[in-house]
Amino acid sequence: MAKKNKLIDALLKLNLFYYSGKTCFIDSETKAPFFFDINSINSFPFYKPLFLDSLVSLIKKISGYKGKKNKELLLAAVGHSGIPFTALAANKLSLPMIYIRDSSKKHGKKNMIEGSVKEGITTILFTETLSSKAKIENGVKALNEKKSNIKAIITIFDMLDVSEIKTDEDIIPVYSLISLASFIEYAEKNKIINKKIIEAMAKWSKNCSGSLSPAPCSDASVAAEDASQTSLHKSGAGKTTCVSSKESCEASDNAQKAAKTLLDIKAITLSLKEPFRYASGILSPIYCDNRLLVSNPKKWNIIIDIMEQIIKTEIGIQNIEVIAGTSTAGIPHAALLAERFSLPMIYVKSEKGEIQKKSNIEGSLFYGKKVLVIEDLVSTGKSSIESVKILREHGAIVDYCVAIFTYQMESAEKTFAEEKCSLITASNFKTLIKTAVAKKYITDEEAEKAVNWNSDPTDWGKKYGYE
């Protein structure tokens, strides 16, 4: 109980509890006049270990974790919001992880599950806040299709106060660090939240009891002036001073090492019969799936080591105050790098959410901070630069983007140069092809076709009759 109270106290000290008198914060099928911004814990390095250590202890207790002997255990993040803490816990326990999308991608390999799942592996699902059955149903279904053995659902905050969730096929136990009931009890006992707000929360919880589809909140709840909601984001059109655009394209030892690591986990796929469609719309015979890294702890750490070295030697830690991951693929890498440097972590979404804070940015970002963008892969550079622009619109100074891999397209070089943001990568297309041929991962003929695509990616599909 003492540890739980510390966690609750931290949430309140960080002002991560939001209440609105009339506006309902909505999460899928659930409506409530309040929510807990658990994601923003990652923006406070001093408090984050308190939650991470508690989460890791809970995982150990549930799974019977036995260190390196526990090879058949997988952590699965539900949605982008579950990725940061899942990545941190997986890294601390040297376990593989995956993350499950709300729906399948419309491009690339069209995956719903990112990472790899072994048949029969014991899996623990993580969601940062359990607020509805719908939030985890897709994850359960996707894992069942992979014949995974789902052991439990864990969450930092359980708004539903449930001990299990029933699906069509399973009854899955639920474990949490904080329950809504314990939060209400603590807040009431210590008189740290307006009494009317506590009463409204208790009423909502009572209506929710025994149901995974709580009734909508009433407009007749507490008036807005009694609310404890505080905006965590200071927006503004802050101008930035940026360095000249550059790209680390040399076939350095680290670039070769990174390329070999990606090849070792089969992150590189060649498909000449049915080319891949990138998010940009471009057809390509080659696809780099860096997301497989998160399911290979040792290989993942090799890449993170290289990215850490880039930050230290080519940027300088003194030039970074916040680390931002691009949603979704950049989030797990940003989480680990922020942990290594003890820096605040946020992530950027391409579209504003329709629920809760309705922002492109998850986490706490204050005006004028120097932000480093972490990306997993750069093709045309369009989506990466979009994240840079969003951060700058919120008043951030963004001079650098560090990515795992770049296809070295001219359009990307031009885009980063125009926005005066430096792109530095762990590896790149030219190094990858040379390494792949040298290690006999691909033939000379396959390499030639890949190079032909790289020289003219826009018209390659039409040239070879694919469209």
Structural descriptors:
six-stranded mixed beta sheet, seven-stranded mixed beta sheet, alpha/beta, 14 helices
Could you describe the 3D structure shown?
It is a single chain. By secondary structure, the chain is an alpha/beta fold. The protein is built from 14 helices and 21 strands. Helix 2 packs across helix 3, helix 5 runs antiparallel to helix 6 and helix 12 (429-438) packs antiparallel against helix 13. The chain is globular and about 70 Å long. The termini are far apart. The relative contact order is 0.13.
Q: How many β-strands, per DSSP? A: 21
SS element count, helices: 14
State the secondary-structure class: alpha/beta
Rg is: 23 Å
Q: What ranges have pLDDT less than 50 throughout 5 or more consecutive residues?
A: 217-251
Q: Tell me the helix content.
A: 25-40%
Write the topology of this structure.
Blueprint lengths: L1 H12 L3 E3 L5 E3 L2 E3 L1 E3 L11 H16 L9 E6 L4 H11 L3 E4 L12 E2 L7 E9 L3 H12 L3 E10 L5 E3 L4 E9 H11 L4 H14 L44 H12 L3 E3 L5 E2 L5 E2 L1 E3 L8 H19 L6 E5 L4 H11 L3 E4 L12 E2 L7 E9 L3 H12 L3 E10 L3 H9 L3 E7 H10 L5 H12 L4 H4 L4
Parallel strand pairs: 5-6, 5-8, 8-9, 9-11, 16-17, 16-19, 19-20, 20-21
Antiparallel strand pairs: 1-4, 2-3, 6-7, 10-11, 12-15, 13-14, 17-18
Helix pairs in contact: 2-3, 3-9, 5-6, 7-8, 7-12, 12-13
Short account of what is shown:
This protein is α/β, with parallel strands linked by helices and 467 residues long. It has 14 helices and 21 strands.
